[in-house]
Amino acid sequence: MYTLYYSPGTASMAVHLALLETGAPYQLELVDFSTRQQRSAEYLRLNPLGRVPLLLIDGQPHVESGALLMMIADRHPQARLAPPLGSAQRLAWYQWIVYLSNALGASYRYWFYPPDLGASEHPAPVRVALQARIEAVWTLLEAQLSASGPYLLGDEFSAADLQLIMYMRWSRNMPRPALEWPALRRFAALLRARSSWQRLCDIEQLGEWRS
Would you kindly state where each structural domain of the chain is located, as residue ranges? Predict the structure, then answer.
């Protein structure tokens, strides 16, 4: 049994999707950001970073969405969330998960949380630079999917795709959303047609960007 500490639409999305893909039993614990529950003493005892996701595996807390995707894939090989161990595709899978975490996860952190950069609002040059950095990733991924898609690993769906669709959704209110890149738009249509995505939208009550 897993317990996922989550907040709707946040970095817990990819992990929630992975759990749905496996069919493994799990329970959800809502972390209410509106009341800053992520900074409560009780939650900080489990996750000193004060963020989501937090996943209890056999009662032990684990964090970082990219790492959690790897853990879930390893524990449920029948779900085929990762290529076989030792394969060239497995090496590419590791690379994509780490790349997305570093290139998009870190940039979005600064985009959505200016205080992390020591300001209540971004100065215009900083905001432009962050936007350019995120859009450069979309351009790279557009080339990858155009040449070798429809998924990040070609014909095979994997947990890296769950991570990517989460980050794409986060761009929906940016000046240039990820769906403006054609191959990324086709990729999003595939992911949003999956039953795991539809189920997650129902559970987390995410009406926006559902399909």
Answer: 2-80+199-204, 88-194
User: Residue 157: left if φ>0, alpha if ψ -120 to 50, beta else—which one?
Assistant: beta
Q: How far apart are CA 119 and CA 134, in angstroms?
A: 20
Q: Assess contact for 161 and 100: CB atoms under 8 A.
A: no
Which has the closest alpha carbon to 109: 64, 161, 59?
64
Superfamily of domain 2-80+199-204: Glutaredoxin (3.40.30.10)
User: Is 88-194 assigned to CATH 3.40.366.10?
Assistant: no
Selection from 51, 56, 9, 50 nearest residue 28 by Cα: 56
84 burial via Cβ count (<10 Å: 0-12, 13-18, 19+): exposed
Would you give per-residue pLDDT tens digits along the chain (211 residues)? 899 999 999 999 999 999 999 999 999 999 999 999 999 999 999 999 999 999 999 999 999 999 999 999 999 999 999 999 999 999 999 999 999 999 999 999 999 988 777 777 888 898 999 999 999 999 999 999 999 999 999 999 999 999 999 999 999 999 999 999 999 999 999 999 999 999 999 999 999 999 8
Burial (Cβ within 10 Å: 0-12, 13-18, ≥19) of residue 3: middle
Spatial distance between the Cα atoms of 68 and 151, rounded to a whole number of angstroms: 20
pTM summary value: 0.96
